[in-house]
Amino acid sequence: MRSSLSRSTSSRRSALSSRTPGFTLIELMVVIGVIAVLALIALPGVPDKLIRDRIVESVKLADIVKPKVADAWTATGKLPVDNIAAGLPVADKIVNDYISAVAVESGAIQVTFGNHANAAIQGKVLSLRPGVIEDARIVPVSWVCGNAAPPNKMTVKGLNKTDVPARYLPFNCRAGTAASAPP
Predict the structure, then answer these.
(1) For the whole prediction, is pTM greater than 0.70?
(2) Which of 4, 22, 149, 175 is most buried, with most CB under 10 Å away?
(3) Torsion sign, CA atoms 84, 88, 89, 90
(4) Does any domain span residue 178?
């Protein structure tokens, strides 16, 4: 009896020790399934973020226009009505990879997306409006991006023509946020 018991114990030990280390096919499939679910959760936000990042990067082109508008305000208390009054080239000459035009309209800078911009924002406009303190022209102009709220005690000039869908707007250009810096 004892020899058969020791034989069965030794056969169990050899069966356990002969098994190769690693994962079974079922374990690997579970891991792949979990990774796939996590990727599907994260994936919808990625394209929106890429478009937002491109908007932030490309709108830096407006930095050549901002000083001209701000200088006009400081010197005269009036904002230029168009690119020519601001001493700038016509709107469709101020371009980059994602912007097809930068226009000054009553002090506001209207950035039109085009060229190689994502199809979701092709032809859409993002407004950068000057925030000023009317009776203190020495206070620097604060630029209000898109649908953002102006800084306290400042008056925003120009028309907000922003029609870029809110999900693509940089966070400082969305409604309800106070913006005092460019995007």
Answers:
(1) yes
(2) 149
(3) negative
(4) no
